[in-house]
Amino acid sequence: MKRILVTLLSTSIMFGLSGCTQPDNKQTEQNSEVAAVSESLNNNPLLAEYSGPYGGVPAFDQMKLTDLKPALEQAMQLNLAEIDVIVANSEPATFTNTIVALEKAGSDLSRVYTYWGIWGSNMNSPEFRAIQKEMAPVLSAFNSKITGNEQLFARVKAVYESDELSTLSAEEQRITWLTYNSFASNGATLEGDAKARYAAINQELAGLHTQFANNVLADEEKYVLFLTKDQLSGLPESIVSAAAAAAKSRGKEGQYAITNSRSSMDPFITYSDERDLREKVWSTYYSRGNNGDEADNNALIKHILTLRDERVALLGYDNYAQWRLKDRMAQNPENAMELMQKVWPAAIARVHEEVADMQAIADAEKANIKIAPWDYRYYAEKVRKAKYALDSDEVKQYLQLDKLREAMFYVAGRLFNFKFTPVPEGSVPVFQADVKVWEVNDLTTGEHIGLWYLDPYGRPGKRSGAWATTYRSHTTFDGKKTVLASNNSNFVKGAEGEPSLISWDDAETYFHEFGHALHFLSATVKYPTSHSGVRDYTEFQSQLLERWLTTDEVINNYLVHYKTGEPIPAELVAKINKAATFNEGFKTTEYLASAMMDLLYHTTDPSLIEPQKFEQEQLAALGMPTEMVMRHRSTQFGHVFSGEGYSAGYYGYMWAEVLTSDAAEAFAQAPGGFYDKEMSEKLVKYLFEIRNAMDPAEAYRLFRGRDAKVEALMRDRGFPGTQ
C-alpha cells in the first residue's frame, strides 16, 4: 500500500486484494470472508471496479451521497479482512507475502476515497460535511487498527531486517524501508496504554482537522460582497464582467459579487479605487476562521497543537516538527529554519523599499494615508506602472485560460513527448459540467499513458486554491495501471461567450499545478508506495515547470490578445522581464512568515500558545512589516491545521524553490536552453519518472551532478549581493 497513513485522507491509500502462498485452514476461512465481502460491494457504485474505456474510469455520474457511508464501512471491513489474511499466513514473512500483499490491500477503499475527495474538495455541501464529521474519527480508528496491528508490524519488521532485503531491487528495498518507517513512526513500536492513547489522539485529531477545514469553508461561503455600479471605480472590464456573472449565478442579477476567495479578493484590492471597500474585502478574507462565532478556529488550533505534541512525546520526540522532519530532505526543524533565515532579512529589506515607493506615490496623490495591508496591492500596481510602465490588466488581456492550457500541452510535448487529445464529451463521466477530460498518449509510439481531468472554475462548495490529485496512479506490479490525473483551480469564469482572463500570478499557478500532473503522468515506478511524496521535494517539480511560462516559444505562440488574436508585443514582454523581480519582497515575505510561523507553532510548548497573541508576538519578533500579513493567517492555515500533509512542512515550498532555481540555471546554461534535449531527458528520467523510488537528494545529484545551492534562489529573486 502507499505509506501507512500519517494524515487521514491526504491521498488515496491501500491497494488491491492480497495474494498469499499455500494458505492454511485459517487463511482459507479468511479468504472466504474477503470474497463474501467483496461480492457485496458490487451493489455500491462507489466501491465497484472502475469500468469503461481507458482501463476503467470513476463512475462520477453515479455518485450519490447516500452510498458514501455504507461504501466506507464495507471497504474498511474488506481491508481489515485482507490484513487478517496477511497476518494469518503461516509461512515466514517475505517481501512477496507481506510487503507486496500490503501494496495490493485496500483497492476498494482507495476507490471510495476518490469520491470522498471530490465531495470534500470540489462539491462540498452541508450534507457531506455531516458525513465527514461522523466518519473522520471512524476512519482514523480504522487506520489505527492497521498501524497498531502488532502481528502485521512484526512481519514487516522481519522483512526489513531479513537477508532477503539485499537481494531486492532498489525500488523494492526503498518501499520496504518506507513501509517499515511508516509503521514505526506511527506508533507501531508502542505498547499497552501508550499505543491505545496514540490511536485515541489520532481519532480525535481527525475530527478536529475536519472541523477546522469546514469552518474556513463556511466563512468563504458566508461572506459575499455585492456591489452596485457606482462602486466599481478602478476595476478593469474583465473583473467587472466576472463579478457580474458571479452575482447572477447567486440570484443577484444587475449587481456585482466579490466572493470571499483569493481569486476574487486579490484582483479587487489590486484595482479598486474605493479604499473603504478594499479594507472590507481584505478584512473579510483575512478574518476567515477568526470571527468569534461558531466557525472560529482559535481554540481548535490550540487543541490540535496540544494533541500533536502529546502524541509525538509518546514516541520520544521533543516536539512535533522534530518528528515530522526526520525523513524529509531538511532532516530537522533547525535546518529548515536556517534556510528561511538566510532569505528573510533580504526579503523584509525589499518590502521596506517597496513600501517607500508606494508611500511616495500616495503622498504625491495627496491621499493622506499611511500604507496599510489593504493598500499594498493597490499601490504596488501604481508603482509597477510608474517604474516599468507595466499594467497588470494589460498583461491579463493576453492570458487566456484556454490558450495557456494549449501552451502547457506544447511544453509537455517538447519535454515529455506527451500528446493531449480531448476525450469526446459524454464518453467519460464527470462530476460537474465544467470538467473536461483529455487522453494522454506518447507522441512517438502512441502508447496510452492516461487521462487528464481539468476542473478550472470556482463555485460554491468548492474549496479555495488550486491543487492536483490522482484517481489512479501508474503501477505495474499487479498488471499495468494507467494514470488518471486531475488539476483543479478556482479561476473566475468569464462572462458568457468571453474567455476567462487570469493574472500573471494565476498563470504561474496554472503551470505549477500542471507540473504535478506531469509528475503523475510520467511515473515509471512499479509499486504504489513509490508514489508517496517527500513533502519538501514534491513541490520542486511543479515549481520548476512554472519556468516554461516565460520561454520564448510559449510567449510568442500562446500569449495572444483575447479580442484581436495578436501576439503579445515584444515591448510588453520586455517590460514583464524587466519587472520580473518586482514585488518580490511582498511575495517572499508573506510566504516566509507563514512557513516560519508553522515551525514556531510546532516547536513551542502548546501550553504557552494562544494563537492570536502568539502570531502577533512571533511576527513582531521576526520584524514582520506592519504593512502586510502572512499569506495564510493562523485561523485559515489549512495546509497546517486541516490535516497533516504540510504541518511543520510548509517551509517545503522554499526548500523546493532552492532546487527549482538551481535546476532552472542548469537549463538556462544548456546549449538548447529550456528545451535542450539532453537536459530534458535527464529531467524526465531523474526528477519526474522516479517519484519516491529513490532518495530525492540522490536523484537530484544524478540530474545536476551536485547538490543544489541557495545562491541561485537569491539571484532569482534579485536580492542584494547575488547578481
UniProtKB/TrEMBL annotation:
Please name the InterPro entries in this protein's record: M3A_DCP, MetalloPept_cat_dom_sf, Neurolysin/TOP_dom2, Neurolysin/TOP_N, Pept_M3A_M3B, Pept_M3A_M3B_dom
Q: Which GO terms describe its cellular component?
A: cytosol
Q: Which Gene3D superfamilies match?
A: Collagenase (Catalytic Domain), Endopeptidase. Chain P, domain 1, Neurolysin, domain 3
Q: Per its UniProt record, what Pfam families does this chain match?
A: Peptidase_M3
Q: Which cofactor does it need?
A: Zn(2+)
Q: Where is the Peptidase M3A/M3B catalytic domain?
A: 269-717
Give the protein's recorded name: Peptidase M3
What is the organism of origin for this protein?
Paraglaciecola hydrolytica
Task: Output the lineage of the source organism.
Answer: Bacteria, Pseudomonadati, Pseudomonadota, Gammaproteobacteria, Alteromonadales
